[in-house]
Amino acid sequence: MQYRFADRVAQAPESFLDELFRVSADPSIISFAGGLPSSALIDTEGIARAAREVMEEEPQVALQYTTTDGFLPLRQYIADRYRRRLGILATAEEIQIVNGSQQCLDLFAKLFLNTGDHVGMERPGYLGAIEAFSLYEPVIDTVPLGEDGPDLTAFEYLVKKTQVKFFYGIPNSQNPSGQTYSQEKREAIVEILEGSSTIFYEDDAFGELFFDARPRLPVKYRVPDQAVISGSFSKTVAPGMRIGWMYAPREILKKFNVVKQAADLHSNFLCQKILHRYLTTHDLDAHIRTIVAAYGQKCQLMCDLFDDLMPRLTHTRPEGGMFLMATLPPGLSSRTVFDEGVKNKVAVLPGIPFYVDGGGTDTIRLNFSSASEDQITEGMHRLSRVIAGLSGRESPPYK
Amino acid sequence: MQYRFADRVAQAPESFLDELFRVSADPSIISFAGGLPSSALIDTEGIARAAREVMEEEPQVALQYTTTDGFLPLRQYIADRYRRRLGILATAEEIQIVNGSQQCLDLFAKLFLNTGDHVGMERPGYLGAIEAFSLYEPVIDTVPLGEDGPDLTAFEYLVKKTQVKFFYGIPNSQNPSGQTYSQEKREAIVEILEGSSTIFYEDDAFGELFFDARPRLPVKYRVPDQAVISGSFSKTVAPGMRIGWMYAPREILKKFNVVKQAADLHSNFLCQKILHRYLTTHDLDAHIRTIVAAYGQKCQLMCDLFDDLMPRLTHTRPEGGMFLMATLPPGLSSRTVFDEGVKNKVAVLPGIPFYVDGGGTDTIRLNFSSASEDQITEGMHRLSRVIAGLSGRESPPYK
Predict the structure, then answer these.
(1) Which helix (H) or strand (E) holds B230?
(2) Interchain pair A254, B105: CB under 8 A
(3) Which of residues 60-99 of B touch A (CB under 8 A)?
(4) pTM, entire model
(5) CATH class of the region B65-281
(6) Which of A9, A223, B50, B288 has a CA that sits 20 to 30 A from residue B196's CA?
(7) What 3-state class would DSSP assign to A335?
(8) Max CA distance (Å), chain B
(9) Strand pairing partners for B145?
């Protein structure tokens, strides 16, 4: 039978992400290609205890349907944390629970994008956002992302001339680049936004993972009505529960709630309950300090190995998060490095899917959170041999 | 700030469902308005045991990211169950895990509906489907639903003339009506479908809840490439875990997987693991027999009370599921019955949101799974007094 798919998916390419999960599943391959937080740093005992308590004390409630907005005490916890960490006067009414922050990308695009509408994002930009937005058939305009944030001239053009419906960015330890916006850039962004009709969408998956533990102020702090923040417990507690949130002005959240309800009624309640119990009976800050210390060390190790073993590659120097990005020597393609890498039991992610315009062929993304330090050392040596081997086969540029 | 919402939501009405959850939350109100399975019949001990085992044996895996398609052994279990229960040769590759079957409605519509495309459904039709489909701005064509299934002339017109992209129906114990398609109707539907370009979407949330425990053959059994089935553990195990599935031809599922990944990467893995552990260590069939026995008795009680106390109302006589529908005496409006009911501490759901054309003002939906038998008895007495009171205030028709 010939299926009559909608236009939005008829051309959709198969995703690269599942290929990655499969590479990650081969234990002989050291993978820097995925985006997993460290399994070893998940507080499995603490979560097990929280799960036991919820199942002992109120199993009938936790296993029943609930309201779309999410478990109120959990939303309250999230709002309180914004107040405590960043001095932002968030309220529970501005928080909607979702299935990991990826769901915010889908539902927010659904809420704002008509076919052909313009939306802005960083270049390179997060693959999951490109995939989610594309299904609403917008025009995606990109702004080059530098060491300290987006190019302001290009950003201003998108806001003032193109009047993008919203600009999507990851100001803290961006995925894929690892870059963090400077305070100056954030202030300049606020100035450009003011008086415009563009919403700033801050994906803050990594804001709690700065190696120096110093919080950076979100753009939303200065333009609360004109910005939304998506957050996630995937990197601080555990991804498998799929609990994230959207923090947005109530007028937006009211409609967001309607599309959330149509999408899946509500996020799984059992995990909301377990997570809330965990958060209120354990010291999340201490747990995050442990994660951050480990990730900081791994990131430093990876950077050092790049500098020692592959001096012809340039790479970013993240202040936090889980990723860095490297640029290959001229003539080397990231796809070739991926293919040769897998043959040699080390996987990196080609930068290509992070560029909506076919760019990024000379970039690779590396995850430093998932592998152990020994694996990072061994994997980077494997990668350096792959790069050396490929470089040796290059035609010299003067030939 | 003036937000520039997309056309698809600018007009979206606020949902009625959250109002219902709030009514349900008032313990002094006996609510037949919601759609909750019986909390008392959730096997909390069994699920607690399964949760404990998962958290003891493989917590790092269960709490980490996983693949979009879902936990393979769970998909295998679902496929095996189709084979065992219905003799359908389903395979795990045809099963995609989702966040309760509501997510199938959203993602399937996303996969097939361009703005202005025609989609068919029953009249009355499931509210959650209307809400999910509407966001893709299709034309929704309806087919009157009778005691034994949809009107075949209207159905044939939609398939052959309108050529709806898909027809959405609930052949087993429909929500809201409680009606079940007869075997003859199913066969006639198959004949009409054959050779057409319309997909038949069977929402099978209630197929395991027939009071006589006799399985009904899905339409998909006869036209496997032209039908999909959505299923759910919400009614047989527990809704709070939000685990359902889409059973579809692989060509459809491949693209469905792409939109699922863009929507939220994957469904929560911890609950997939707990659920699978529960299913493989407990006797689901015996558990379902317990549920079905209780629901059958409650349904009978509600029907008897209607006949005894409110003989001027007509009502459906469900063979299974969780709902029945009643038609009010001439002149009575369901909205008034809802409002007066809540004042008198009994809630029923007006039929209106189940009609895309503004119909249903004289119908109410009642849930019989959630309340206890005592509550049903008391609630139906309250309802009969409300109806009697309102009828007394009616102008006699001959006046």
Answers:
(1) strand B227-232
(2) no
(3) 60-69, 98-99
(4) 0.96
(5) alpha beta
(6) A9
(7) helix
(8) 75
(9) B150
